[in-house]
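Shapes recur. One chain:

:::
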Amino acid sequence: MSEPQRSGTAMPMNPANTVTIARMVLIPLFLVVLLADWPRWFAAPAFIYVLRPWLAAAVFGVLAATDAVDGYLARSRNEITTFGKFLDPLADKLLVTAALLALIEIHILPAWIALVIISREFIISGLRMVASAEGTVIAASWYGKLKTVLQIIAIIMFIVKDSSLITGLSSQLAWWMQGAAWCVMGAAVIMTIVSMVDYFIHAREVLIGPWTGGKPLALSASEDAEDAIDDTTD
């Protein structure tokens, strides 16, 4: 198999990046379906109000699934670009952040859960920028991938768990759905923290330098001590 094309040899606006941009552009559509009183705009029948959480969950699920689509397109067409590597994780973070804030807006999700998840993204983004500036690439681990899957499933479950379609059918079903949603969200929060710790473990040499015998190695003779001090004052 030929090597993937890098930036400069693949067009920035290839099919994969087009899908990624579409995911970002359609985030407001998800918010409108979930938050806005759009059935009233069209004088929609009452059953639309019952289905609205499920429609919002479906839109969110489709947008989240496009992450796999653009990744497949980029790899299969050998069109991995720098623009795409920047845009894809940004689109994922915007989608999850929008969903979490929307759930807070409708008083379904405690704000502290969103704070933990969003803070992790800020911390890891900063860590990866520091590592990149030092010439180190920190590859995503399976912890991060599992975290993303759990977050998506938890968000979908939180969107629909209080819908009248569930609460009206059976109290036992409603109780089960509540418990399952909170269990998945709890697992997502735990994996969010675990994946952050994993990033710090892989970036420890970037942050504190190589260690020998429990003590950091001294700066090499070619390094300027004053420059080293300046680098730590940001």
User: Anything to note?
Assistant: The first strand starts at residue 211 and ends at 212.
